[in-house]
Every structure is written in C-alpha cells, then in structure tokens.
Amino acid sequence: MSSYHPLSEAEAIEIARSIREVFPTGEELVSREIGDGNLNLVFHIAQPATGRSLIVKQALPYAKVVGESWPLSLDRARIESEALIKQGELAPGLAPRVYKADHELALTVMEDLSDHVIMRRGLIEGGHYPKFAGHISEFLARTLFFTSDLGMNQQDKKRLVQSYINPDLCKITEDLIFDHPYYDAETNNIEDSIRDAAEAIWRDEALLFEVAHLREKFLTRAQALLHGDLHTGSIFVTPESTKVIDPEFAYFGPMGFDVGAVIGNLLLNFAGQEHWSADDVSRRDRRSELLATIRDVWTLFEGKFRRLWDEHGVDRVARAAGYQDDYMLRLLRDTIGFAGAKTVRRVYGLAHVADLDTIPDAAARERAQRLALAIGTGLIRRNRQAESIEDVILIAEGAL
Amino acid sequence: MSSYHPLSEAEAIEIARSIREVFPTGEELVSREIGDGNLNLVFHIAQPATGRSLIVKQALPYAKVVGESWPLSLDRARIESEALIKQGELAPGLAPRVYKADHELALTVMEDLSDHVIMRRGLIEGGHYPKFAGHISEFLARTLFFTSDLGMNQQDKKRLVQSYINPDLCKITEDLIFDHPYYDAETNNIEDSIRDAAEAIWRDEALLFEVAHLREKFLTRAQALLHGDLHTGSIFVTPESTKVIDPEFAYFGPMGFDVGAVIGNLLLNFAGQEHWSADDVSRRDRRSELLATIRDVWTLFEGKFRRLWDEHGVDRVARAAGYQDDYMLRLLRDTIGFAGAKTVRRVYGLAHVADLDTIPDAAARERAQRLALAIGTGLIRRNRQAESIEDVILIAEGAL
To answer: Which residues of this UniProt protein bind ATP (chains A, B) (predicted)?
Structure first.
C-alpha cells in the first residue's frame, strides 16, 4: 500500500522544515509552486527572514504534453534522486545538492538554484558562459568514465545497470528521437513552411539507415550511466557556475548520447541566430562563440576522459595498444550521430525548442529550422565516418 | 532467513515425488547423485517399477575448480531455471522440460535426458548428429531474436535485462575467456610443450587489440538473452534430438557470443582430430563433416533469423533499407571473434576440453593444441573484416 499522493503546499513546507542543514532556525517558510505541471510538482520553499531556500520536487504519475496525458512510472523519481546523488559525488559542484529523497512520495528535496538561469534561456538572451565548456566536459568525463566498465568494478556496474532500468522514460526517447521524426507520425509538430524538408528526410534511405544504427545503440549499448536528457534546458548556469539537473531519464546507455545532447543543443542555438538581420555582426560573433564552445566541449571532454582512463582505469585488457584511441574515435562518432538526432527532432518532432520557436519573423524562423535540419542530417549522415570534432564545425559552417 | 541447505538424497526423493506428471503412481523412487560436485548437486531420481525418471539439480553456494573454492551466488539457480523455461517456450523441444523450480532451495526439477549423450563426448567417440545444425540454428535464432529489441516489446525487454543481471557468472567469463589467456595469469594451465605459443599471443598487439574489442562487447552489448555457456558440454544429443542445458551463465549480451560458442567448440573437435594417424581417412572425413556442420549452423541460423525478422519484427525503424544485411554481417563478425576467443581459452586457460586433453600421444596432442591456437587466433584477428562463414572454413583449413 503506497502512501503516495500529490503534496499540498502545506505538506511541502512541513517536509522542507525537516531539512535542518538549510533551515536550522524556526522562522516562517513560504512556498511557491513553480513547476510547469506537466510531469512534476516543483515547490520553491523560502524562509524570508533568513533568505534561505530549497526545492521540493515531486513526480506526478502521468505526463502531459500538448494536451495528451499518459501514465508514467513514479520510479523515475527514485532514479532521478539516485542519479543526482551519484552525479554530485562523481562531479562535485556540478549537480544540485540533494538533502533528502523519499521514494514512496516520489520526491527529492534539493538545493535551490534560483540564482542560476536555465542555459537555453540564457543563450537565447545573449548570455556568455565562458566556464561552461570546462564544467560540462568535467561533468561528462567524470560521470561517464566512473560508471563505465573502464572506471568502476565491473560486477558492481552490473548491479547499477539493474537499478537504473528505466523503461518508461527510455520509451519517450525511443519514440520521440529515434522513430517519430522519421515518418509522418501524428506526434510530429511540423510547420507548413518546412514540411517539404521533413518529407525529404522520410525518403532519405541513407539517413534512415544511420538512424537505425543510432537507435540500436540507444537500445543495446550499456556503456555508462547517462543523464539521458542533457539538453540546455537541463542545465542551470551563471557565468561562474554550471549545475546539471533533472536526470530522470538516467539509464545505462551509449556515452555519446549525453555528449551529443550538449553539442546538438548548442547547434540548435547556432541555427537560431537567424533572428539577427543578416548584416548584424552579432550573428557571426554568436555563431563563432558557439562553435568554439562545441570544439572546447569535445576537446576538453576527450582530454579529461583519457586522463581518467590513464590514471584510474580498472581494466587490464583496455590497456591494449591503440584501444584507447580507437575507443575515443568511436565515442566521437557516436557523439556526432546523437547530436544530429537530437537536433532534427527539435525542429519538427513533438517537443520543439525556444531557440527556434521564439524567432518572431516567420521567414527567419523557417531559415533557422532549415539550417538546423541541414546540420542535424549532415551530422547523422557523417557520423560513422567522422574523424575529428572539426567535422562538426565544417558541417555547421557549410550549412550556412 | 533462507531455508537453503544442500539436499539429502531422501529430500531430493521427496521433492521428486511431488511431481505428479512424472510420478502419478506411488511406487518406490531411487536416487543417484550424478553431479561432479563442483558447482551443483544433481540427483537422478528413478522409479524402477515404471521406468520413469527426472533430474533434481541444486546449486551449491560455491564453485570448486582445480582445488580452488570460491563463493558463487545461489541466484544463478533462479536465472538457470527461468532461462530454461524461457528457452523451452521460445524453442520448443530444444531445452529440457522444467517441472518445478524453488528459488529458496536453488533447485530445478527437470526432464531426465539420460537417453541423450553430452555432445562433446559424442563427438569425441565419433558420433554423427545430422540434425544438430538444424536444431541448434533453430534454438539460436528463436531464443536470440525473440529476446532482442527486434523481436520483443522493447520496454518488456528492459525488465528482462534487469532480471538476468548475473555478475558472478559473467565474472567467470570475463576473467577466463577475455583476460587471463592474454597474459601470464596464474589460472592458466599451459602444457610446457606449447608455452612458446602462449607467450607469442601475449606479445601480439594486434590480437590483444581485438580481444579488447570482444571484451567490450561482452561487457556492454545487451542485445539478447544469451545462454552464455553454449559449448558442446552444454548440449545433449542423439542422432534425432538436441537439448540445450545448463544456462546458468544466462544474461543479456552480444548474440554472437552464443553462436560463436557453438562454432568454436566444433573447431576444438576439428583440431582434436590429430589423434588419428595422418594417413587415416577418418581424420579427413571427420574434419570435412565438422566444417560442413559449421557452415550449416551459420547458414541455417542466418536464414531463420532473417525470416523471424521479416515475419515478426517489432521495430519499424529496423526496416530501414540495408539495415538487416548490415546487422547480419556484424553478427557474423561477432560470431567469428567470439568463436576464436572460445577456442583459444580452451587450449591453455583454466578449463580445458577433452577434445584436446584426452589425446594420449603427446606429439599429437601438441599438434592439436597448436592447431586450435592457430584457428582461434586466426578468427580473432580476422573477425571485424570477415565477409562470410567461408572465412571460418578457410582459416580452419589453412591452419592444417
């Protein structure tokens, strides 16, 4: 018999009050529900007298997207809280602190990051995050390496795989990223102006072949514990700080899916720069900055991952001559393929991104969408032949 | 508090008596313990008055190999009984019937196959099994296809992955197949006469690179529910019948590991034919027959797997043009690599095979061992470039 029920604000306050490391004194707490109500309740609990605050996040037993509602396992709240804790241990300072988790109530009490901004919003508003590439490459290298067979006991890893089996959330990815965008699915959300581009993708046999490969990797490759949804809407930033949130899609999958999610979402913002007029120098500057960030994310990630392998590798056999180089090249190729898939689905799949959708001028928006599709499909087509991160830069620049 | 304890013969008889479908009448039952005592107790329970019988197999909480003893999870008995039941459902008639399983007592009550012979023994004694390739290809195609993302609901598959997490038994494979044979490990059991050949393998960088790839696949590729130990000692045969037993190593891994196990063990018998004098026509005849069987196993398997895919495929995306051909080629390559790894470890790793070890003449035995190593390393070196099963035949013939 489960005690689960959606919390009232009074209950959320009561739970928050029990977190003595945040609220050691008894002054009044006030609650504000700040979730979008589609998947979770999110209570911001503050103590005006002290300026202290925290977040109570509770999973709802369903998902609402574009009016549709379908049941969704509450077990994702356990997975999210366990992933947050593990990522925080492996990449200190790069995930919110977890104060308490209650699996029965499907809730996590965690650090309030209101002083940060969601990175997607920050990028759209022209923010600069010079430390982002350093931070996210650290997060990726450490969380992926230390949950893989390269960096942890291989029997313990199997038990960890077991506790992160996440069918409901993986299903969302399998449908919305690796299936629906590649045929005329009802869930697609295609602006009339680019329908011809979507239809061209549905007929592109070479592309569909590559998508089948990427889907297979997502379904079968238990390489490391992924965040599983690492787009710029799952990252809180300031110019000084980066915090990765919302790992409810966490499961053991191919590492390149997480690295590719970051790069794909930077490329969506790159495409979105069509909102500037063509002769505005800001368009070119922003794009250069984004491409430099992409290059840094991969280059720093690769260097850190290799260093961890050299210093903390647990697998004797993985020291075979040439194997690390080969592994990193395959990881780059996966990254590029998944970056492409992440890009395409955001243009006309079920869930769009504000980087494109908020461009008010229809012609500019169409150009941005076509650009994103050209980049995304270019990456997917290229992925298994890619040789370096410069391939991504060339594809993005070539699409302009 | 577990009720587990090793059964007495009296207790085994009592359990057997409860299986009314085998023993509907009350005549006396007699028990004979026929296990090797290293991993399991195996009671053969017969009713002399009716000629009926069954097997009670109980896991022991340790493994004994060459005098060493180490603890081993009893959960393997649950995995074994569940795998037997599932394989029996998916490949009717090709696995022993399970009458009862008791996870607390770590026991499985199953069909008595005393009218069959262990295939390794049968091959060594010159038996012919003309239906074997048809049967084992059916077993492989159906058990692998219908537990993969191609043939079953992809969310249910994830839950099945979860219930077959099998760290202890996978560890044995990871050590004894994919690690210890590739350096001077204490567990290796190397005849002095071929020590130079083992040492050459330890220095062979190209080979070690391929082994690292195969090990990675074993560790990370959750493709389908494998038997996990499908050598000819896990197969009971008669000229008319094939029954696959002992799936205690079952877990979700790369399909080629099971197919390769069958082929590798046929190749070990091929190498073992050195026991004939060089001018005996039987040597050549047996080898031709074995190579024909290997060709049939792959060819029939591939045909059946493709037919299942065409008729029962659940994944829309996997219908992309060219994908099935590419998938089958990769599966062949994995099969060849794993067949090679399975062959090498049986020559000088911890656990040898009678196909080689029972050759009384030392010179013939040495020739057989060197032949097995030449074939095994040839397959490993070739695996990722192989184009057809004929590559295996050519490597085997070329090694003579």
So the answer is: 40, 57, 111-113, 246-248
